[in-house]
Amino acid sequence: MRQAIVTAALAALATGCSGVGGTGSLELTIYGEDFIEQEIPAAGSSEGGEGFVDGWTVRFSRFLLCLGDIVVADHGGGVGAEDSSLRVFDLHRPGPHEVVTFDDVGAKRWPELSFAIATADQDTVAGNVGDEDLELMGDNGWSVYAEGNADDGTTEISFAWGFHTTTRFEECHHDDFGEGVVVPAGGVESAEITIHGDHLFYDDLASHDPNLRFQHMANADADQDGNVTLSELDAVQLADIPAAEGPYGVGASNVN
Q1: Closest Cα partner for 65 from 115, 27, 114?
Q2: Helices in the chain by DSSP H: which ranges?
Q3: Neighbouring residues of 85: CB distance < 8 A, sequence distance ≥ 6
Q4: Strand 7-13 relative to strand 97-106, pairing
Q5: CA separation for the pair 205, 200 (Å, rounded)
Q6: Parallel, antiparallel, or unpaired for β 112-117 and 57-73?
Q7: Distance CA 103, CA 114 (A)
Q8: What letters, b where the CB count within 10 A reaches 16 and e where it falls short, cover 149-169?
């Protein structure tokens, strides 16, 4: 029942001018939003009505992510800046967190901004974490590690899930400012990679408006020890989840 692990959206904060000739700087940061830093609430208890529709609340204690292979380019294949380093960040810590600053980047719009959430290895470096977290990711070859607990007022469930999937994000854009980033001559452009921890709990891979649910994950605790493992989740078929806890949409993906 392991679904889409994590998705990301890039918010490019345009400066209002493209610059003609010359160079500028590009600052990249990463941010986990309140859902990762604080909690994902039950829908009925949040001001905007966002959250779990089945009454659960999730709080992360760690949300480690390995980010790297950043490329800033144009449609013709010209590369303005790139960094192949892999860095581990804990997005539960208050952010945004600085990733990298590129200096002497050509002053113009760079429409092709891409990056990867990739499996860590022994050459991976720390973004904002200590040696323990860095070794945890590198030794296990994880790209994402989510640790925390969930409760519905009567039951508490803990989890610690490490994922090996590598995902590349391309053609990053902002709904208001367009594709990529605009580097101003003699100035600085800032862009933020925003990670959405709530997507771990989507009940539909195809819908534009999925719900957040946790009850089926709590039910997967086969040994009833209060900790749900990935092995226990893998043992549950989506088709076997009661209709009251779904239905689950998996689109064209081959997901069990």
Answers
A1: 115
A2: 33-37, 131-140, 215-219, 230-234
A3: 68, 100, 125
A4: unpaired
A5: 10
A6: antiparallel
A7: 18
A8: bbbbeeeebbbebbbeeebeb
pLDDT tens digits for 198-211? 999 998 877 888 89
pLDDT-based confidence at residue 36 (cuts at 50, 70, 90): very high
In the chain, the DSSP E strands lie at 7-13, 23-31, 57-73, 79-90, 97-106, 109-110, 112-117, 125-126, 144-151, 156-163, 167-169, 173-174, 178-179, 181-182, 188-196, 227-228
CB atoms under 10 Å from CB of 85, counted, come to 14
CA distance 143 to 219: 26
Query: Within 13 Å, how many C-alpha atoms sit on residue 216's CB side?
Result: 27
Which two structure tokens, joined as six digits, stand for 2? 């392991």
Retrieve residue 179's tokens.
Answer: 């594709």
Residues 6+ apart with CB under 8 A from 136: 64, 142, 145
- Determine the Cα–Cα distance for residues 13 and 173; give it in Å rounded to an integer: 10
Q: When comparing pLDDT for 89 and 45, which is higher?
A: 89
The CA distance from 213 to 216, in Å, is 7
Tell me the whole-structure pTM to 2 decimals: 0.88
